[in-house]
Amino acid sequence: MYHNDTIFVLLLITDANIKILSIWAIQNQNKLYINAVKICFMIDIERVIKVVDWLIFEKIVKSRKDLALKMGYTESSMSQILNQKVPLSERFIKKLSILDDRINIDWVMGGDGDMLQESLIKETQVFYGGEDFEEPTYVPLLPISAQGGSLNDFVVSVKDSDCERVISPIRGADFAMTVAGDSMAPEYPSGSQILIKKINERAFIDWGKVYVLDTCNGSVIKRIFPADDKDPGKVKCVSINPDYPPFEVSFEDIFSVYRVLLSMSIK
Please, which domain of life does this record's source organism belong to (predicted)? Predict the structure, then answer.
């Protein structure tokens, strides 16, 4: 807790006179005022750091180094400011605030209102540190690969809680799994992760789209088409890589069908 006199001094300090008080406190070696001024700077830097983190989260800047370049500072100068080695300036805060018109400069300067301007908050789908912040979605990463073991064996015997979980950039996915082999390259390269959702294949299949079929011989990722002989009890599986010939699978040998929603790979 702060000393009562310090709290009283804080009430006297405003953004308009904090610089004057800082000089006076240092010249007169007044520890009470020095302590109060330091507290004000600490509060200011916390708000600034929150804005910096939000700018990075929103991908307006890539990093603190990128932020420094966009604001006309060196990386070293930015580090000194954010680590409180040098005091904040009104010029710095103004340059920070104009990076995005949603930032409320009154909040950054003095804590008035909210970090983002109310009239623009609704335009932001996700923002850092507010009530509308959306927690990332995680899905279980199956310890088998598409073009490998059976999903049915996994779903029956292993709990979701036993799996590694990965962040899903989209909602609605049931599982993530790793692609093995190059039959679906280049769109689904070996080692990439796919997000999948179980569907009712008896109700509807969107022909030509990519699915994971969980069959008695393991799981396969393929584009699905009607069988050549139009037999409703079979589907035709086609690879993207032309080096792999198509083949047909009977629904009797399919445990379940999963629609591929998204592929994630490191380029």
Answer: Bacteria
